[in-house]
Amino acid sequence: MRHFLTLKDFTKEEILEIIDLAIKIKKQTKKGKLKPYLKDQTLGMIFEKSSTRTRVSFEVGIHQLGGKGLFLSANDLQLGRGEPMKDTARVISRMVDMVMIRTFSQSVLEEFAMYSRVPVISGLSDSFHPVQLMADYMTMVEYDKAENAVVAYVGDGNNMAHSWLMLASKLGFELRIATPKGYEVDAGILKEAMNFAEQSGAIITIGNDPKEAIKDANVVTTDTWVSMGQEAEKAKRLEDFKGYMVDDAMMALAQKDAIFLHCLPAYRDYEVSEAVFEAHADEVFDEAENRLHAQKGVMVWLDDHRDN
Ligand code: CP
Ligand code: NVA
User: Fold this and answer.
1) Phi, psi at 154, each rounded to 5°
2) Is the predicted pLDDT of residue 7 greater than 80, yes or no?
3) Is the C or the N end of the chain the one with fewer CB within 10 Å?
4) Which domain holds residue 267?
5) Which residue owns the Cα nearest ligand 2 atom 6?
6) Which atom of ligand 1 is nearest the CA belonging to 52?
7) For residues 119 and 303, is the Cβ–Cβ distance under 8 A?
8) Residues 212 and 240 in one domain
9) What is the pLDDT of residues 9-50, one digit of tens each?
10) Residues 143 and 190 in one domain
11) Active site residues
12) 92 lines ligand 1 (CB under 6 A)
């Protein structure tokens, strides 16, 4: 049985296989001919943090596949009153067919998976957001940016930056990350990515100069400067990230037909200017829609890789 907790655990071939499946599923969905791949299955969805896209896309996705989504807010579960995660895992995984969890620590996901009888999917942790990256790569394929990709990530060295590191180092494309000093990516995750990059041929550059990162890139991306759980640091962060906004002057340095991606929610005139966001809104909202299809691909793939 396989889980989907980080792209670290997947080979290049497996990632591309899920992307192909997601593209096929999107086509079937658009034609109204989606096969009920997960007929009568239940997806438990545990949320310890807020969500718009992850919640709606997983709930609608499992419904479209013939199953049912069960929204479980951690506050309303006994989990919120101190029931251990490993007990929660042993109970819920006897009742549902698959589980998605959005939580703080990656170790919580790992613990849940260790005790789970069914596949577990990360819906974001403080370290990674792997389902988002499946949607992002799917969007790059659709916009013809996946071949010879040069991706510039400008902003916080957070879960999104870490996920881009994993995707690029597994698939073997060029990724340049520019963060302010003091907001660099995690050194351990970078080291793992560099090891994968040695095998895949990915070119990974880490620095503090957004202009250098964006120059001639064909994909420019960023994320909020204040992630969920960092609200207390907001004032300091907004100050420290000055100069890192993706605006018209920055985008002008990228390839002429470069696309802009953002996992959303986007904070206008902080990490991205209103003008850049609106000029690239088609790309960003195609990316958001692709969460729905990419995750159907992930769920169907995991269902196909059960032990029995
Ligand atoms: N991009 C993303 O995961 O959005 P939500 O926080 O709304 O789920
Ligand atoms: N880095 C952001 C991503 C939100 C989808 C956060 O963790 O809040």
Assistant:
1) -120, 125
2) yes
3) C
4) 132-287
5) 227
6) 7
7) yes
8) yes
9) 999 999 999 999 999 999 999 999 999 999 999 999 999 999
10) yes
11) 102, 129, 132, 223, 263, 291
12) no
